Amino acid sequence: MPAKLSVNLNAVAMLRNRRDLPWPSVEALGRIALKSGASGLTVHPRPDQRHIRFSDLPVVRNLIDDEFPKAEFNIEGYPTEEFLELCAGAAPEQVTLVPDDPAQATSDHGWDFRKHQAFLTDAVARLKTMGCRVSLFADGDGDTQAVEIAKAVGADRIELYTGPYGGCFDAPERAGPFLEALGRTADAALAIGLAVNAGHDLTVENLPDLVKRIPQLAEVSIGHGLIADALEYGMAETVRRFRRACGQAI
Prior knowledge:
Layout: E1 4-8, H1 10-16, H2 26-35, E2 40-43, H3 56-67, E3 72-77, H4 81-90, E4 94-97, H5 117-129, E5 133-139, H6 144-152, E6 157-161, H7 163-166, H8 175-191, E7 195-199, H9 207-213, E8 219-222, H10 224-233, H11 235-245
Parallel strand pairs: 1-2, 1-8, 2-3, 3-4, 4-5, 5-6, 6-7, 7-8
Helix pairs in contact: 2-3, 6-8, 10-11
């Protein structure tokens, strides 16, 4: 089955937040994405609310529940007490835990699973009591022991950090080693029963090779590149383009 597409709405919210105005609408663009075949919506509510605001969470939850009940809500974030309480209120189908410092502009590395094993075990257990599937952001560097720890802490999935692979956009001949390392990490995860997601700097151009190397990829979560393309092609056509890049029949 081709990888599902979850549309990350943070860049929409960031543009909205530049002015004290209600547009562009996170809800309206999320609706267009889901109407166009996206399987879900992703948000990353940071503590300073510079992108998605906490008040956006019930709006996205209600959009999915009322109009697209087969879609999934994925919330990303660092598992502070405040974040876990937000998840309890929003009841996402999936929570993706990332090791971001609050001041980071964007996620740029996976968890150090050895260092944070106990911390993650506690956070994952709490999320499981809420009925959430849990995915952990992981460096796609081929470290099979790290993947085993991710399984041991109770995660259902890992999300491969694809930043180094996506960073080869201007020199695609350099992408091969990064792609193979991602593939080895995915192979190790799948072999022990973890499903595999991926995200960061994925584009229509680099997605096909990723899904070819990892044919069992469950989901890609894409924000910046997708929203950038939507400025040129419109949200509906952009979602269709990314779905085709995932190998989905349109």
